[in-house]
Amino acid sequence: MKQAPATVADQAAIAEAAAVLEEGGLVAFPTETVYGLGADAENPAAVARIYEAKGRPHDHPVIVHLAPGADLDYWVTEVPEEARKLVQAFWPGPLTLILKRHPQISDAVSAGQDSVGIRCPSHPVAIALLSAFKGGKGGVAAPSANKFGNVSPTSAQHVRDEFGMDEHDDGALNGDAACSASALGVVLEGGSSEVGIESTIVDMSRLATHGPVLLRPGHISAQQIADVIGMLPAAPDQAAPRASGTLESHYAPRTPVTMLAADALTDALAKLQAKGVKVALISHALNTPAAAHRQLPADPAGYAYGLYAALRDMDQTGCDLILVETPPQDNDWLGVNDRLRRSVFGSAGIIDTLLQK
Ligand code: TXA
Ligand code: MG
Question: Where is L-threonine bound in this sequence (predicted)?
């Protein structure tokens, strides 16, 4: 089973983080998927600070996080029956619904689109924060707490690494009144994110014309959604709204990443090592000596849980290349394969280049 977190933010830290949000500041907080970088969704200046801190282009919308039982009708104009069923079945949990944005909600969170992404996370620290913030009536806009294009953080330490903070930057954790002057003042501790990859995103905003659309695969599968609403979410078409996690290159470490099936990988590894190339290996079945190696569980949930920490750790080893043993290709592995495909983007031909050196 999953490891219990060593420490989690206490009530005092959570109350202080809620106050920081209410004052327009940024708070990084744990969710069951990945850590989020949060701001008051109804304060456009605060939301703008998220974009600044992440270096994220302004045309990428952010997800609004709500406390369990929050009034969805405040945020969106239309909640189709099917969306209510999904809320009932999967919230709190790793599912984001795209719905028609209520005109009273700032388009800062939706990058000008008429829709808004809403999610109710299940991590107890996230729930405590959302319940404390504006007495549970607010919404926290939060993308993943990483610099744009990088691997998402699944621990508080990953967040501090991303933003170049040390633990002492973190006023609220120690109960200090003051927050650091850095853009990101507070990182709430919540252990390792249990799911490990970002939420499943389903667009329910154009149900009548397009049906449900799967914008990003995740822990909750298209089939689980179909089991609840009787319609299988379709793959996005050209007209689908933009989702930054759907860019071809994303979730990428600095070291090039390449994916190969076991046989081809063993072969390439031998040739690369003979050339003196340092390779970090991420596998689920193979156990071949490499300069660095992380073996992940051969089940999709266990693999997803360890994937981003593995990419980050292998990125730190100083290796020339990260080789990933191609995971199984069946539907249960869709979320994992989607993230891996984006992390290898742009590294085509890297093995030949390294061998020719
Ligand atoms: O698991 C998650 O969803 C995490 C945690 C922190 O909740 N958040 C996350 O946020 O992954 P972010 O910003 O890294 O990815 C959210 C994705 C983006 O690809 C964004 O473009 C898309 O959701 N999105 C948000 N609002 C949208 C909208 N109105 N229409 C289409 N896509 C939207
Ligand atoms: Mg992200």
Answer: 33, 65, 119, 142, 199
Pairing label, strands 321-325, 257-260:
parallel
Q: Is 33 helix (H, G, I), strand (E, B) or coil?
A: coil
CA 73, CA 75: separation in Å to the nearest integer? 5
pTM: 0.92
How high is the mean pLDDT of the chain? 91
Instruction: Among the bound ligands, name the one nearest to the CA of residue 201.
Output: 1
63 lines ligand 1 (CB under 6 A): yes
Fold for the domain defined by 2-189: DHBP synthase (3.90.870)
Q: Is 115 in the pocket of ligand 1 (CB under 6 A)?
A: yes
59 Cα to the center of ligand 2, angstroms: 14
| Residue 206 Cβ < 6 Å to ligand 1 | no
pLDDT band at 331 (very low <50, low <70, confident <90, very high): very high
Looking at the CA of 120, name the nearest ligand.
1
Buried b (16+ CB within 10 A) or exposed e, 288-313: bebbbbbebeeebbebbbbbbbbbbe
Binding-site positions: 33, 56, 65, 119, 142, 144, 152, 199, 216, 251
Start-end ranges of CATH 3.40.50.11030 in the chain?
257-355
Chain segment 233-247, per-residue pLDDT in tens: 998 765 555 555 555
CA–centroid distance, 28 to ligand 1, in Å, is 15
Nearest ligand 1 atom, CA 244: 19
Token pair, residue 307, equals 């994937």
Q: Which residue spans of the chain are classified as CATH 3.90.870.10?
A: 2-189
Does this complex have an ipTM over 0.85?
A: yes
In tens, the pLDDT along 1-33 reads 455 555 789 999 999 999 999 999 999 999 999
Q: Are 257 and 324 in contact (CB under 8 A)?
A: yes
